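Dear colleagues,

I hope this message finds you well. In preparation for our joint manuscript, I am sending the Glucosamine-6-phosphate deaminase (Muricomes intestini) sequence together with its predicted structure, so that both groups work from identical material. I would be grateful if you could confirm receipt.
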Amino acid sequence: METNRLTREEIFKWCSIPKEELKNQEGLKTKLEIRKDKATVMTELGNMMADEVIEHNRQGIPTKWVLPAGPTDEYDIFVDRVNKERIDLKNLWIFHMDEFLDWEGRPLPVADTYESLEGTMNACFYGRIDNELNVPQEQRIWPRIDNIDYADELCENLGGVDTVWAGIGATGLVAFNEAPRSYCYRLSVEEYAQGKTRIVDLNDDSIIAMSQRSFGCCLDRIPPKAITLGFKVMLSAKRAVYMVATGTWKQTVCRILLFSEPTVEYPVTIIPKYVQDVVLYTTEETIDHPMSHETKGW
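The corresponding structure tokens are as follows:
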């Protein structure tokens, strides 16, 4: 069983590397692509999404993705190309990462509100695609409390997914796969990697982060529970693309995912152990770190 946490010395070392030297370091766990700013990153990613569907359609094979409800800027590019180039999405399967639940573990109303991730995706993604091109309803897979095993079983029947398009949290969450924190039990990396769709309590730091980013740190605005895909679905992927362009908020976790061995303390570090092709797309600001600029010897 995993018992060790990352040491301060390890984290400080990784955070102290100048951004210009990162690609030359030995032992990088992911490929690293640095772009000027968020707009550049998201434009490139939206085009990558469109190109993947076009290529799979050309080959006559389905496209199978895991998608987040944030970040969403890349969807502007993707949707625009779909409508202008008439890209057919009838053979696209989308496993949505997660959905908020209320304090009793029940779904909230589907609406164009922060608390409804399905409503968010309807507004910023599905609702903007021409009907004759759109993803069929039955191929939009949301984790549901009334059929909690459906996504996992369907993913297995489809032979896994092609690409996980993943935002990550400041403490390494992917979807709502957060670090398990309990005095009473612990999980190994291998156990966590086999995690299936489940209901979770959000960690306090995630609630604080989301409330600060969107609601002036009004903690009561953030639902306390969620239903999330586990890593079992996501680790079936051929490729994982991390989309991290939020500046100082993610500077440390980017260093950790580049260098750390797999650890449930930062779940994002588990993905490279199981997915062959993993790449981090980020910005110059996000991949920089203030500790790499500290004056030495004073």
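For the figure legend, we might mention the following. The domain at 8-241+251-290 is CATH 3.40.50.1360 (Rossmann fold). DSSP finds eleven helices and ten strands in the chain.

With kind regards,
E.M.
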